[in-house]
Amino acid sequence: MKRNFPVIFFPLFLTGCPMGDRVPMVYSAKLLMVANSLCIQVQPEGRERMSSLWIEEIGNPEHQLQKYNIVDVPVSVQKCLPTYGYTFQPGRAYHVSFMLESLDKNNGGLTPASRSFSNGFTIWINAGVWQVAEL
Question: If 48 and its partner were Cys, which of 24, 96, 99, 100 is the partner (CB 3.0–4.6 Å)?
Fold first, then answer.
């Protein structure tokens, strides 16, 4: 039995998980409607800036917006993130993803220096007012 132990359990040790959590965290943003327009808000951590944005209508890949290497879009809890003129329609479902990069973490050599956000949602009309609900 002592000879079989290494032969049986050695392959199990080779397939073990690496130390630490290497899967990046994906956060959710706050979504609300302001004057029939989508408002995306987040709580910034330090001097974060939006670096990329991707919006798509679920089930309609032709109706999407992708922006990368965005500069000079600071994040504030009091302001909505820009959607760059993307047109949302009531009765449809959407997916929005964006990345925030921290200047402080980048300059300090801290990792991860960015945070990823992702939300699925639908828009509808209730008594003439546009509303949003997360999927």
Answer: 100
